[in-house]
Amino acid sequence: MRILNLLKVAYRSLNRNKLRSFLTMLGIIIGVASVIAMLAIGEGSNQNIKASVASLGTNTIMVYPGNSAMGGVSQGAASNKTIKVEDVNAIKVNCDLIKFVSPVDQKRVQVIFGSQNWNTMILGVTNDYLSIRSLTISKGNTFTTADDQVAAKVCLIGITVVFNLFGDENFNPVGEIIRINSIPVKIIGVLTKMGQNTFGQDQDDIIIAPFSTVQRRMMSSSIYVNSILASGKSEAQVVDAVDEITNLLRNKHKIAPSDDVDFTVRTQSEISNIFGAISKVMTILLACIASISLLVGGIGIMNIMLVSVTERTREIGIRMAIGAKGRDVLTQFMIESIVLSFVGGLIGIILGVTVSELVAKFGGWPVVISLTSILMSFIFSAAIGLFFGWYPARKAAALNPIDALRYE
Amino acid sequence: MTTPENLITVKNLTKTYKTGDVEMHALSSVSLEISKGEFVAIMGASGSGKSTFMNIIGCLDSPTSGEYLMEGKDVLNRSKNELAELRNTKLGFVFQSFNLLPRTSALENVELPLLYNSKVGTKNRTDKALEALKSVGLGDRVDAMPNQLSGGQQQRVAIARALVNDPLIIMADEPTGNLDSKTSYEIMEIFQKLNDKGITVVMVTHEPDIAQFAKSNIVFKDGKIIANHLVAERKNATNELKNIATMTDEKSTT
Ligand SMILES: Nc1ncnc2c1ncn2[C@@H]1O[C@H](COP(=O)(O)OP(=O)(O)O)[C@@H](O)[C@H]1O
Ligand SMILES: [Mg+2]
Fold first, then answer.
1. Residue of chain B minimizing CA distance to A312
2. pLDDT tens-digit profile of B118-138?
3. Residue ranges per structural domain of chain A
């Protein structure tokens, strides 16, 4: 009964000051909406990374030179040469749990066709690489083992390179000769379009050539390899396959069991975890920024409530003169600020969800709106209402009736 | 000994204000008894302590020292909440500046004391507020906002608000201070009718002709009561209003 009356009192008072009520809510609305939208965008990109990393094949294994146990992902620096071509062959011959294995040499190169030129990345790999990465050929054919043995001047090119050299994505360049770092190379196939990866890299901006072609004709060393890409026979045995490679290379590199190895073996899922962790940090960062705006919104509520207590001192005096107890005034102001933050929270949720949907629709960015983020920001905004409403409400309730009435 | 019909008894009431090192005695040792059914007008020069006295017996302010009994029971030792309840149920206030809530309809203003009275139900509330507004002659302006009402009408809303919880006493501090004489008489008419029904009225005024509507007059000077006497020829507000009406009629016919 009594609380119902006070709800009515608070409602009337908010309704009487619509603009002020709305402006007060604005802080909370923006705060809650940005928390929800930021978390949705962060979670969306997180899941996107996971999905695209998983699409690379969960049983993929990478071997890099150098020990990156302490430093995260090593990008196989050129100075750090420890993996040899013969290591690849040893893996192929000795590791039972490995299905495909390919050496990988990569280099940025200048490509010329007629008057067009283009800077791109060339990969020197064997046909196993195409199988591991599930790459397919849309026009022409891939190279043969014989091509690899003789370091034949042939290559496969991505759609982006086709477009930049020949001016048309649909042009069939099979049979054309291009110059890669001045070396004439014949195009024998075009890679099927892959599009962008999660990080916005164009995966079609690439040239793939037989490993020996790249190694002998374009790299400075003919013994060492940038990295090795392999795939396990089954996903369940990937960890065992990693051990197999590690033990084999440890033997071959003659490293004592007590010493650190001079190479790093990683599975795709480990890498995916690393990126997952990075994206999680990003999400937390975004959420922190959004929380700050929520906090600022809360301070806005306190600000308005404080001003409102001062501005309404006379009103409080009148209410007390006709019988309002300190606790009635306290409850009224508390209800007002809770209602403000609750309604603000609700509007904020609607706005946040809408913004997330718009980002998904027009920005092409994946978003995942989680119920947790909605609940969390809602509870948070209600708590802010309680917390920041408390002080001004206390101040109002502690007023002496006569002092409040006399207030000018 | 206080007799049972003594509604208000104050003894040696003192109120001292300290501004810096200067002590200011707004009330010095005031003693007074007001019995049920009284209609007291408190008079005196500006700054003589009338408002201070009213605020203390209205439980809005507390004295520096002294005793205050209402219906024979001590008031000053009560808690803030008990005093709020007392103001809500037994006292009705009327202020010089009306003190209505702005942007709040007449009806909602009158309902206000009922919202703080847990004994009055929702259904009853509107009925009681309407009844109070009718009794002050504003039954047709219940939805009007204060700024749409004249001074006299606003003061009548304030009186309705003071009445709505059926108080024992109406306390009015210069209720006619902002009103012209005809409107003042209308307010006095309401007060006299309420007093006839048994409600005690204590009213501050500095206008001698308004004080004539009360049953007795008390005069304050420098925080002390210097006179307390019955009104010899008490005026009847209804008659006075009729006189004014006939006077204006005569003017318009001549
Ligand atoms: N809050 C206050 N602080 C200091 N002095 C006050 C305060 N209220 C009233 N006074 C002083 O007390 C005296 C009595 O005031 P008041 O009761 O308002 O007089 P009245 O209503 O008869 O005009 C005045 O001299 C006034 O200046
Ligand atoms: Mg005064």
1. B101
2. 888 878 899 999 999 999 999
3. 2-52+274-406, 83-252
| Unique residue bearing structure tokens 């001003």 | A307
Q: How far, in Å, CA of A241 to CA of A244, rounded?
A: 5
Q: ipTM for the complex?
A: 0.92
**Contact call for residues B189 and B241 (beta carbons, < 8 A):** yes
Residues of A in contact with B115 (CB under 8 A): 5-6, 8-9
Residue A323: list chain B partners with CB under 8 A.
84-85, 87-89, 113, 116-117, 165
Q: Is the Cα torsion angle B242, B248, B250, B253 positive or negative in sign?
A: negative
Contacts for B229 with CB less than 8 Å, ≥ 6 apart: B216, B217
Q: What is the distance between the alpha carbons of residues B235 and B233, in angstroms, rounded to a whole number? A: 6
A400 contacts on B by Cβ (under 8 Å): 61
Distance in Å, alpha carbon of A314 to nearest chain B alpha carbon: 8
Tell me if B63 sits within 8 A of B32, measured CB to CB.
no
Name the burial class of residue B25, with classes exposed (0-12), middle (13-18) and buried (19+) by CB atoms within 10 angstroms of its CB.
middle
Q: Which residues contact B20 (CB under 8 A, 6 or more apart)?
A: none
- State the best of A4, A314, A322, A405 to mutate against chain B, taking most chain B CBs within 10 Å: A322
From the list A368, A384, A391, the residue with the least C-alpha distance to A30 is: A384
According to DSSP, the β-strands at A206-210 and A154-157 are: antiparallel
Using one digit for the tens of pLDDT, what is the confidence trace for A345-379? 999 999 999 999 998 888 777 788 888 888 988 88
Q: pLDDT, tens digit, for every residue of B229-247? A: 999 999 999 999 999 888 8
pTM of the entire predicted model:
0.69
Q: Tell me the nearest-neighbour CA distance from A308 into chain B, angstroms.
A: 14
B24 strand-pairing partners: B17
Q: Give CA–CA dist A192/A196, Å, rounded.
A: 13
DSSP one-letter code for A363: S
Contact B129, B115 (CB under 8 A): no
Which residue has its alpha carbon closest to ligand 1 atom 17?
B49
Residue nearest to atom 4 of ligand 1 (CA): B17
Name the minimum distance, in Å, from the CA of A351 to any CA of chain B: 31
**Cβ–Cβ < 8 Å for B187, B176:** yes
Q: Which of A16, A314, A405 sits opposite B104 (nearest CB)?
A: A16
Length of chain B: 254
